[in-house]
Amino acid sequence: MTPVRKGLPVLKLVAVSGAPEARAADLIAFAVFTEERGPATGTAGATTTSARLQSGKKAGARKAAPTGKRAGGARFAGSAELQHIDVALDGLLSDVAAAEAFTGAAGQTLLLHTHGKLPAARVLLIGLGAADKTGPDAFRRFAGTAVRVADRCKAKKAVVVVPEDGAVRLEARVQAAAEGALLASYRFDKYLTKDRPSSSLEQVELALPTRVRVDESLTRARAVADGVGLARDLVNEPAGTLTPVEFARRAVETGKAAGLKVTVLDERALARERMGMLLAVAKAASPYTPPRVVRLEYRPKKKATKHIVLVGKGLTFDSGGLDIKPADGMLDMKVDMSGAAAVLGAMLAIGRIRPDVAVTGYLGCVENGIGGNAYHPGDILKSRKGLTVEINNTDAEGRLVLGDCIDLAITEQKPDLLIDLATLTGACMVALGPSTAGLFTDDDALAEDIKTIGKRNGEDFWRLPLNDDLLGQLKSTIADMKNTGLRYGGAITAALFLKQFVDQRTNWAHLDIAGPATTDKDADYMVKGGAGFGVRTLVGLIDPR
Fold first, then answer.
1. How many C-beta atoms surround the C-beta of residue 183 within 10 A?
2. Is 382 assigned a catalytic role?
3. Which position among 325, 354, 451, 463 bears the catalytic label?
4. What count of other Cβ atoms lies within 10 Å of the Cβ of residue 213?
5. Active-site residue, 232 included
6. Predicted TM-score (pTM) above 0.85
7. Most Cβ neighbours (<10 Å): which of 61, 365, 384, 522?
């Protein structure tokens, strides 16, 4: 199948078994856990980290190390592989680990050149912390870090040893590690004409502790990573390139490649659908960048167990409208379509992994521009649902677009569950910081599922209240409601606004991803720029294999 995106390189990813230290490579990476001990005598409630490290297999799983060399490996008593490597290096690995105070704490790394004493040119140790506190995302970070270091070393081939320890099933560890390796290799360099960074890494082998087929895990990892990469590409694109029309074109291309049914509603179709709020937001930009709503449908071959709808805010640029943003607040507003990017990325992955659940995605693609045709503060708009809305801030446009899209989705699909994603409020970032998304729902079980699956996938959600006491802030004397409330509790009142368009017709969750939609630095599998946040959680929620 022809790839629909360019950000992930053609990285050969294979799973192998057997003695990993015997494999020829430019770099071999081991995950190392700290060994937690109980409280020392006379020290109530304390735990200490042992000087010994574990990488997964018990010592003695192989024959004893050959004699005649300096005794090494005492520091790695929990790992047969590292014992053999340490002996082969005349104890240098344990000496350097001691000198560098390498304990296996999460995030620690130790890189050592083997100088021809092993088939691998370099050995990399990456700390994961305590094994009993490790989740799948630790293996994603581990593999991502290994790929980053291999890339810095100009390696062509790297071996990533998937450890045996950790309270995570092997298939999940393999999928997470494969995702981490692929996502760490992401690049958005299409506009660089000089000094374009290059990568020499061509192959990553995942060395497994046992001989087992993990083809499904690798296939799923590639599908999810491609979905995240697609979302990152879209978020990183300049607004002058990724107009609503171009976003829709790429959605059609993506949907066809994934075997989805795709429908695009242009401004005439949107007018027939009475989507007055969305069309008002689009008015100023419409002569040049008219709006589009894209519907993508996946249906399983067997009878669907349930139907889930995803709705994404796709503001390809947000100037604030007549309530114009200040210059520094407008600079990154190309990312205001991150919710729609996440929905499209998730739909790409869903089309490839083919779950037993029916899934429909809606992308509300609009530009909030400035001009003589712009909608005004004080205007009263009629929504598709029939509710009238007084505009007291044209920069609170995302909820207007989402409100019409949510009503369209519910009336067309009658889903069992609807989830919307949006970079909706700065207030959510103020409350939760840059790396945590706000989660709003009345369903306690759904909230826990999203938080748990998010944590498993390295995406952090925190539940905020749908406090009906704040609904009065949206009261208008001349319309059914206003589009914003007071300054305080802004993320909550935005969610309460959307709730009026759900109107108890389906189970619903709103994810405000304003903070984690982008990241400002490179780390493990994260790359500065668009994060593709939400894709992994959506896929995990829809198909939790």
1. 28
2. no
3. 325
4. 10
5. no
6. yes
7. 365
